[in-house]
Amino acid sequence: MRHLAVSAATLAGILCFGGARADNCVGNDVLVNLYANTLEVSKGHSMTTSVDYSVLTTDDVKNIYHNATGQCSGTFLATPDGKVAGSGFCIRKDKDGDTQSISFDLKPGADKGGWKSVGGTGKFAGKTDSGWFQAAVNDGKMSVARWGGTCK
User: Fold this and answer.
1) Are 4 and 138 in contact (CB under 8 A)?
2) Quick one: which of 76, 128, 79 has its CA closest to 106?
3) CB atoms within 10 A of CB 34
């Protein structure tokens, strides 16, 4: 059960509902878990490392992030008070072969996390995009996160 909760955090950690009106890019991150390992040191106190396949979609199919594919990896800490925190990275490639990477973080107990561009090639080079994410659906193996932000 704890794995399911942390998988939800992984989903949330990766890229979600709501968001500021200033968002000019919004979409979904469809994730399929490739690997997850949980170390539980005591009841309710665990650390999970997870790797997921990722496909980004955007509400605007002309957005440069639409259908970028790759993987996300994160580490999440569940504490005895029931809060989960985490962070990690995603790296993706688009149909033209251009690559982009983001970092993400989820503060302890938060429903939404943050993401920001940290590198890329081609059309993604020099991007300073950033935003929010939130878990939408999760069955323990597949998940969908809603995300949005400011994309320049």
Assistant:
1) yes
2) 76
3) 13
Beta strand 130-138 with 99-106: parallel, antiparallel or unpaired? unpaired
Residue 39, amino acid? L
Hey, how many other C-beta atoms are within 10 angstroms of the C-beta on 58? 19
pLDDT in tens, 27-42: 999 999 999 999 999 9
Contacts of residues 129-132 at CB distance under 8 Å and 24 or more positions apart, as own/partner, are 129/25, 131/19, 131/23, 131/25, 132/16, 132/18, 132/19, 132/20
- What is the tally of helices (H) and strands (E) in the chain? 1, 8
Give the max Cα distance, the chain: 48
The count of other CB atoms within 10 Å of the CB of residue 77 is 17
Question: Taking the model in full, what pTM does it have?
Answer: 0.85
Residues 6+ apart with CB under 8 A from 8: 135, 138, 143
Q: Is the pLDDT of residue 5 over 90?
A: no
Task: Say if residues 69 and 93 touch (Cβ distance below 8 Å).
Answer: yes
